[in-house]
Amino acid sequence: MNRHLRTRCGRTALALAAALTVLASTAQTADARPAEAGGTLILVGGGLKDGNSEIYGEIVHKAGGVGKARIGVLTAASVPESQDPDAADPNACSNSHCNGLYYADLFKHYGAADAQWVPIDIEHVDAADSDAVVAQVESMTGFFFGGGDQYRYITSLLHGDAHTDSEVMAAIRRKLAAGAVVAGSSAGAQIASGPDMVSGGDSYQALRDGSAPGYFEDPTRLGYIPQGGFGLFDAGLLDTHTGTYGREGRAIRLAADTGHKRVFALDENTAIEVEHAGTRDESLRVLGTHGVSVFDLRSARTSTVQGRWAIDGVRYSYLTDGDHYDPRTWHVHAADGKKPLAASAATAVPANHDAFYSVDNPDGVPYSFSGTARALTATTAQRTATAGTFETGPAFEVLFRKRGDTRAWTTDGTTTATFADLEIGVRPAAG
Where would one find the signal peptide in this protein (predicted)? Predict the structure, then answer.
């Protein structure tokens, strides 16, 4: 999906009466799974591949397992059928109904006993307070929220500006507390956020101009929703598509501007699994093919340098598949099988002139920011490295610095897979 694609909400009619009739007649009793002290969140940074059996399989497992899981699919972040010019083409369509059926089929492929689209979108917000749809939700053991525009979930499930739970959202919240799994990808992960949920923006413009509350037509402007999303995840701010779109800068700026001390910035096709969500036993694990950046701003200091915003003292950790993170102690625990990396190669860190993978750079490289950090932790040649922005006027630079407690782990003995407690700062470039 184009990183700057922004389709606005509409209010035209979509015929869901038939679907609601079916739901009223077929809603089943909820699966009798043992209640836990809080359920599981599985939040994916977008770009979830059909073949990611680790993530899809874990959602099915947490929903009761193969042959037992019943997954409700919510895709209200997508446009409704009436706004999709390809709605009639099953091979090209991308709308709430089409996408709901697509994910339902995928969950059945991965062993769910049943998977159903929950028929709510921005043209039928009344369905979110329908007894028939609530009965459908009550029959499910897990839920998956698809991508699109997270603000549409506010419109359809939180009564818009009122920001109050619809009956369906209240039911999902109860199911999660009782042990169900709630998963989502891209906007479906972002909507789990608490206060100050990001609504758009690019890293360079964020560093240059700062953030503002709201939802803006300019997709490069860093905006946020003060009331947040569903508030299911409260261990820190969330961001998605991080390495693919170079969003590390906007994640750090938003946290600093809004007073948050921690950000979890998720790469594509990668998830954080939050077990016992919302309880004192909450724990986090990374699943997938890339990683999760954790920015710790407890000791960060903002300042003005050359008339521009700057920050120092941000701790940066990067977790990959199987790693655990304790949100209470702020500690990284590398997965079994990863060994501490004793840097031995005196290899210089490659120059990086596009730290945030600018949309304007045709030669840019995704995962640029984390790539520089990983290279630094794997070399004995340097204790610091810098990376600049592709944009100038002004240019910014990122300083990466090894601390005394910086650690790295490896799976191949030579390159960094996971690291903890690198220190970073961002400032206007000299000259």
Answer: 1-29
Q: What is the pLDDT of residue 174?
A: 97
Rounded CA separation 304/23 (Å): 58
Which tens digit of pLDDT belongs to each residue from 172-208? 999 999 999 999 999 999 999 999 999 999 999 999 9
Q: How far apart are CA 272 and CA 375, in angstroms?
A: 24
Burial status of residue 258 (CB atoms within 10 A of its CB: 0-12, 13-18, 19 or more): middle
- Helix (H) or strand (E) holding 312, with range, is strand 308-320
Read off φ and ψ for residue 309, nearest 5 degrees: -65, 140
What CA dihedral angle connects 29, 33, 35 and 41, to 10 degrees? -100
Could you tell me which residues are beta bridge partners of residue 147?
none
- Sequence-ordered alpha helix ranges (H) in 158-215: 167-177, 187-190, 203-209
3-state secondary structure of 19: helix
Domain map (residue ranges) of the chain: 36-294, 301-318+338-428
CATH code for 36-294?
Answer: 3.40.50.880
Integer CA distances (angstroms), 396 to 31, 316, 330, 390, in order:
54, 18, 28, 9
On whether the pTM is more than 0.85, the answer is yes
Mind listing the pLDDT tens digit for each residue in 360-392?
999 999 999 999 999 999 999 999 999 999 999
The Cα 287–Cα 80 span in angstroms is 31
